[in-house]
Please model this.
Amino acid sequence: MSIEYERIVHIWKNPPNRGEMKDADFVAEGANPICGDKVKVFLKIKDGKVVDASFTGEGCAISIASASLLLDYLKGKKVEEIENVGREKVMELLELDLSKNPSRLKCALLPLMAIKSEKRK
Amino acid sequence: MDVEKIREDFPILERMVNGKKIAYLDNGATSQKPRQVIDAIVRYYSEYNANVHRGVHKLSEESTVAYEDARRKVAEFINASEEEIIFVKNASEALNLVMYSYGMKNITHTSRITISIAEHHSNFVPWQVLAERKKAKLEFLDVDAEGGLVGLENASGSDIISLVHASNVLGTINDAQKICKVAHEGGGISVIDGSQSIPHMPIDVKKMGCDFFAFTGHKMLAPTGIGVLYGKKELLEKMEPFLYGGDMIIEVKKEGSKWNNLPYKFEAGTPNIEGAIGLGAAVDYLNKIGMEEIRKHEIELLSYALGKLKDEVTIYGPLDARKRTGLIAFNVPGVHPHDVATILDEDGIEIRSGHHCAQPLHDRLGLESSARASFYLYNTKEEVDRLVDGIKKVKRVFA
Model:
């Protein structure tokens, strides 16, 4: 198995930032009906900045690792900056090139897309 | 049946994936194509490409003959007559044709439509929409732990009973003859979705007694974009066209138009000529091997695979290979099917993961998704061994 995927499975086994946040300022939910992945993201926002983040959900190793790594990345970022985060950033965080794996890319983008679509509401 | 010799006919089986020879076990999604089918399509475009039913020139006559020859082959393959074979793009379109042309006219608010919880979305959504539009009653047959239909007799009296012949998840082969009998005794019609059965076993629509039989070509060695609706002549004759336009008319005047004869009434516009020719070549290929032989080979593979997998994974559907078509859906406990499929893919083993377009069945089984290995005439026991080794690896990695 590739080292990159091994890293993903390793994160999946004990993902950082997993857990519900009771006093979240922002909650977003996303689901991928094709595979049944579900993710709920919680953000704590202060002065326009993400000060804390967590997630709950069930899914494949890529979607779970993506939520973990993305939330790590978002901590300390300004809320407006989230709009500029794209698929390249997600692949960079995962250290996986999924540009030729459109189905797995969907898994990877699930947490980000959930946040973005909730923000646009 | 010489599997090694058969494999030589499929150029793609030589392909390497991630440095490993491919073990293609996703035949339930689509089958690979033999050189004979690929060559037939190339020959059509290199030698006699022209529109059908339109010209009197040499090429058009040749393409028309080839297109109609394909229809004859398909008709013989399922024991139907040529006018009962309608070329469509896939099974979904075939079932939509029945829904729009038969259903919209004959179903009312007092009607009952029966399907099962194990239907592929292609045989689920059209009936759901029809029932909604006509305020008709839509009923669902359940499946038991072995994957068999529960309470088929209760469906008697339904105006339409539309059921899958072989489930694309459970693998269960339903007793289509009995389904049709129940439908007819209750005064209704029967629709059988044969997408997962016709690639793997002999089909005789007369013996089955169905009113409609829908299937797609690409799961039975033909190209994508070609499918078939078989319909009983007396029913097709009474039905209105599904699509309107070129080739489906005998006469068009300002005041109105007259519809063409069967089956052309249901084939509006330039059809998928290369697809039909490819399907004809696929039927020739399957006939050459023999459907009974293919079924025997798959039962052997299935028994072997079920025996090896039953202690490694959770298997859905019957454990008796003779009750199944050539596929096994399963889950590795605690591991998402996508991860199973990705790790297997690293070793060149190609399986499906997801809900296989059967979400209501997954809901019924309490699952989000599953993995599925599906076999065909060119698969070998060695490939099953690779699958089992791959699954053992998945379990090690995710332990």
About this structure: The first strand of chain B starts at residue 16 and ends at 17. The interface with chain A takes residues 336-339, 342-343, 346, 353-355, 359, 362, 367-369, 393, 397-398 of chain B (CB under 8 Å).
